[in-house]
Design a protein that fits this description.
With 249 residues, this protein is an alpha/beta fold. The chain contains 11 helices and 5 strands; from the N terminus they run ααααααβαβαβαβαβα. β1, α7 and β2 form a beta-alpha-beta unit. The structure holds cobalamin.
């Protein structure tokens, strides 16, 4: 088991010591950051600070150093957002600080996106993606979209706060065989089920495979609301979409 001292970056050590209280979360964060290389820790520390300029510069540097875009995304950007989430939940930081962190995440993603999205092959299929009604979080959905595009899917991004009609119209207009819905709030999660009902009412449920995801969503919840599949992260999102096409993931 790793120890706090195994994390070389002082800022990350302080963040865990000062703001992470739950023993499981302490252990998980120590394991993560002790494993990742120092430059990823620096990127994470800058993101946690909401310092978009430094995230921008370090992400660029990491790519110049030939570090894999997926590693930067997972070990730098997403790992840092986990700490931001804990601090937000436990009232150490508030919406303005989280927005600064989200901006920093986007600064890094701006370099990662073209790499992950550049598959250069004939599209496998069209996927419609959107945040459900009432939900304005879009970082995770955007990561899924990047990975889907990079894996050869054509993705139509409906953005945030998407109504049932917008989902239905998009599936119809693009003859899309796959729909992905994302929700980050327990209060917006039920809207996934409502959208599925709307597809049934429109007599279109059999025309489209529906996958769902987002931090609070579980396999059980997905089954209960009648989704075809659940994915826990962007890699699973791609695997699920490929599974729908019966292509080896
Ligand atoms: C950043 C953030 C914000 C930013 C969003 C900026 C943006 N452009 O996205 C801002 C400040 C705007 C915000 C606002 C709010 N937020 Co907020 N936010 C977060 C935070 C810290 C991080 C979310 C994130 O980006 N995670 C990182 C991404 C990479 O993870 P992800 O989204 O889960 O996506 C991954 C997987 O889930 C999966 N996935 C995602 N979608 C899909 C879809 C498919 C099909 C598949 C297969 C997979 C998949 O793949 C992704 C990549 O691996 C979370 C805490 C957390 N740890 O989740 C709180 C959190 C989600 N927010 C919360 C709250 C309460 C709010 C507000 C209500 C706060 C307020 N009082 O105003 C508002 C609501 C606004 C709204 N109507 O949506 C709560 C929700 C609590 C709950 N149980 O419902 C959380 C959990 C914080 C907390 N612990 O209290 N927030």
């Amino acid at each position: 088991m790793a120890d706090l001292q195994d994390i070389s970056n002082e800022k990350i050590r302080q963040e865990i010591e000062e703001f992470v209280e739950n023993p499981d979360e302490i252990e998980r964060n120590i394991e993560t950051f002790a494993r990742v290389r120092p430059l990823m820790q620096e990127i994470a520390a800058a993101l946690i600070e909401g310092d978009d300029g430094t995230v921008d510069a370090l992400t660029k540097q990491a790519l110049e150093d030939k570090i894999d875009a997926l590693e930067i995304m997972d070990d730098g950007l997403i790992a840092a957002m986990g700490v931001v989430g804990i601090k937000f939940r436990d009232n150490y930081i508030f919406v303005p600080e989280v927005l600064a962190c989200a901006r920093a995440m986007k600064a890094g993603m701006a370099y990662i996106e073209p790499i992950l999205s550049a598959s250069g092959v004939e599209p496998l299929a069209t996927v419609i993606m959107g945040m459900v009604k009432g939900d304005l979080h879009d970082i995770g959905k955007n990561l899924c979209i990047m990975m889907l595009r990079g894996s050869g899917f054509n993705v139509v991004d409906l953005g945030v706060d998407t109504s049932d009609d917008e989902f239905i119209d998009a599936v119809e207009e693009h003859s899309a065989p796959i729909l992905g819905m994302s929700a980050l709030l327990t209060t917006t999660m039920p809207n996934m089920g409502k959208t599925i009902e709307a597809f049934i009412d429109a007599d279109m449920r059999d025309d489209v495979k529906i996958m769902v995801g987002g931090a609070p969503v579980t396999q059980e919840f997905a089954d209960d609301m009648g989704a075809d599949a659940y994915g826990k992260d962007a890699l699973e999102c791609v695997a699920v979409a490929k599974g729908f096409l019966s292509v080896q993931a």
